[in-house]
Hints:
The structure is a single chain. The chain is built from twelve helices and no strands. The protein has helices at about 10-15, 25-35, 40-60, 65-75, 85-95, 100-105, 110-120, 125-135, 145-155, 165-170, 180-200, 205-220.
Amino acid sequence: MTQPTEPSNSNQATGCHHPKTTLPKTEALLPWLNQQLSERRYQHSLGVEETARDIALRFQLKPSQIEAVTAAALLHDCAKCMPLNDMYQYAHQHDITIAEADKKCPQTLHAIIGTHMAQHQWGIQKQSVLDAIRWHTTARAHMGLVEKIIYIADKTEPYLRDADFARHVFSHINTGRIDSLDDAMLAILDNTVRYLLEREQWIHPATYEARNHFVQRVGRVAAHPKTRTAVTTPA
């Protein structure tokens, strides 16, 4: 099994000299991510970080929230390039239970492994960051603010994602209304569920639950985007 590279600064990895709320700095994360990821996935992660920060700044979030958004965005795909068999071995070695739903939908495994790596290799204890990494692929009901920002940014960043779809999603965001992020979430989830149904693919229960939750939150079904593209599926 190819083991993920340990961060070069062991103090950052364990958090032993820092408060538990301290998050790793971007300049520490980038060299490590560059080793873990393909160039394509590395650029995607930078795009997610840029898009997520843009959303956070639009809503004038607190510096601590922007710091959480930045860390979660950069780390969300940190296990994406690990071979599937290595992910199962990693889970076994670290006593991580893989639910049956995730076994049926293996594209979720990198989020589970990545959450563990963020917590145990980088010492991240901030729950909003860990939750954002864990649920960036499927989404879930009752997502927190950082989770929603990372999910939206992951599906709309400019490097891998479709520009027309991104514009459609951002047309739902009103910076004067923080709950407009729920409209954007529903627009993405509508498109994802429809895409998977059209191709008769299995849909993770958390995704169905998330869509039902946001339908109720928004009070309507978001208008279907005109552009249908595979880049909006969980990845």
